[in-house]
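From the methods appendix. Each design record in this collection lists the tokenized structure first, followed by the designed amino acid sequence. Records were kept in a plain field format so they could be parsed without special tools. The example shown here is representative of the layout used throughout.

RECORD:
FOLD TOKENS (173 positions):
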């Protein structure tokens, strides 16, 4: 946030008066897979809008290896230690239009594998481009990483699941 030196502290929409200016940087991005969903709040309470995303723990050798993992998930088989798997790293609930949320909601309802209270695990079938402001190590997450201010930038209908990013793409972390 940039602020004029002679500007008094104000509350509310002081930036509308030209005293403050929010300088936004382009977000970092990653292509990830939708793995869990939860209903939204308020006017979106009847639509699944709060999503948990995962990346591959390592790059899949090929489409067949990734498909085998997806089939194991559909059979509700636990991941084998050291094997290829999707690891959750972020939750996001903003960035899509109401129409996009409705389309994703329909897919979630068709591909639900299990219900855990308000949360549904879904068969991985959608890739999203997620934007975020920063990344840190996190011992609390299975992936070992956490992102700051995640938001959905778009649904990647053009990208197959095996081409979603992996932890190896975050070498700087």
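DESIGN:
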């Amino acid at each position: 946030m940039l602020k004029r030196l002679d500007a008094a502290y104000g509350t509310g929409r002081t930036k509308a008066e030209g005293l403050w200016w929010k300088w936004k940087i382009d977000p970092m991005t990653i292509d990830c897979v939708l793995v869990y969903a939860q209903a939204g709040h308020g006017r979106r309470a009847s639509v699944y809008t709060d999503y948990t995303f995962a990346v591959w723990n390592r790059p899949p050798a090929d489409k067949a290896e990734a498909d085998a993992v997806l089939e194991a998930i559909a059979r509700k088989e636990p991941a084998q230690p050291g094997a290829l798997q999707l690891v959750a790293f972020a939750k996001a609930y903003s960035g899509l239009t109401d129409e996009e949320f409705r389309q994703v909601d329909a897919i979630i309802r068709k591909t639900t594998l299990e219900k855990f209270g308000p949360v549904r695990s879904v068969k991985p079938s959608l890739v999203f481009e997620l934007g975020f402001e920063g990344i840190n190590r996190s011992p609390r997450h299975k992936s070992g990483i956490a992102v700051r201010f995640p938001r959905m930038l778009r649904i990647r209908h053009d990208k197959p699941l095996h081409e979603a990013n992996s932890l190896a793409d975050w070498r700087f972390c």
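APPENDIX NOTE: Residues 98-111 form the longest helix (14 residues).
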